[in-house]
Amino acid sequence: MPKKTKKKRINKQREQQIKDSGKMAGIWHEMTIEEDFTKAASRIFLMLRNCQDRFPGKKMALYIDVQGHRNSEGGFDHDAFELIHYFALEKMAQYLTEVRTPLIHIVNPKPQLPLPHELVITDDKNEHSFGFRELENRPREDSPDKRKTYPTTQAIMKYLGMKEFRCLVCWTSKSVERAHAVPRALGGSNDVRNFAPLCTDHHKASPDVADSEAFWSWIDHERKKYSDNRKKEIMEIFNPEEADSENQKLNDESNNFFRLTKAELVDLYGWKHEDFSAISWELMEEYQAVLKKATGKHFGIDQKVSTHAWAFDVARQRMENGKNN
How far apart are CA 52 and CA 208, in angstroms? Predict the structure, then answer.
């Protein structure tokens, strides 16, 4: 084949690829270490819905990456595996033109279907839910490493795919510590999967509880809160008087431990107004039982909002579970 003809053909192929790429919308999501299956799947679905609403009829490609989420054999853990196989490939592939994951890449040979308006996402197959009655340690890692010393910062960075050792909440690189998801005093291990890089302030604020998923969920919640607070700081430049008023209100509330705990129960655990009005002596007894058996006092901090909010929520679930049995 003459060189000019070959070059023309290559150029036409490139032009076609550029045209095709313009016809497709790419949606990328990294399943971060703090996300579980339900959070990641819900967020991906919301992004896909927004894309479909904004660009009706446009072909969509979903790209998924995963941070951490490994089992003892080096494969993906329960949450990541469910996200890739059950959600992306079994449930969502029919609504997409292409799906790329760390495990598999598929192209839908049929026209993509329109997404439903709502999708109920639950993890019914999760065998690792917290035992509210027994209050036993729930680690995320299966077959944890029995090592007696902390993993190095380099080992944690490698596991999480980080280039720098930064706080998972605020991303500072100053005074970053190795925080246990489940403290050693509550049965946590020194396995690299049981650690999160946190700055001193966020390490002190993190929950000291026997439930690793509650720890990771708290990080996810705090990261969003931190992002929202950063937006408020930017708005202060444009509306300082309103910002001063809001900051004064926050400062007045910051000394009220129970008000902050109530706010976390609403924001993180989804409590409603009626849940607070229904607080009883029985709930307080359950709350004290949870505090005694499944929480700790890391850094010697007794009144830790994150720990007490978790204890209240577990106490409520223990009561509800008892009524249903």
Answer: 41
Looking at the DSSP bridge assignments, the partners of residue 209 are: 295
User: What single DSSP character describes residue 295?
Assistant: B
CA–CA separation, 316 and 278 (whole Å) = 10
Give 228: exposed, middle or buried? Use CB within 10 Å, 0-12, 13-18, 19+: exposed
What are the tens digits of pLDDT across the range 169-222? 999 999 999 999 999 999 999 999 999 999 999 999 999 999 999 999 999 999
Pairing verdict, β 24-31 and 59-66: parallel
The widest CA-to-CA distance across the chain, in whole angstroms, is 89
CA 227, CA 295: separation in Å to the nearest integer?
28
Write down the pTM of the prediction.
0.79
pLDDT tens string 237-255:
555 555 455 555 545 544 5
> What is residue 17's predicted lDDT score, i.e. its pLDDT?
46
- Residue carrying the six token digits 């291990």: 189
Q: Half-sphere exposure (CA, 13 Å, Cβ side) for 291?
A: 16
DSSP class of residue 115 equals P
Reference 168, options 194, 199, 211; nearest CA is 199
User: Per residue in 232-251, is it b (16+ CB within 10 Å) or e — as a string?
Assistant: eeeeeeeeeeebeeeeeeee
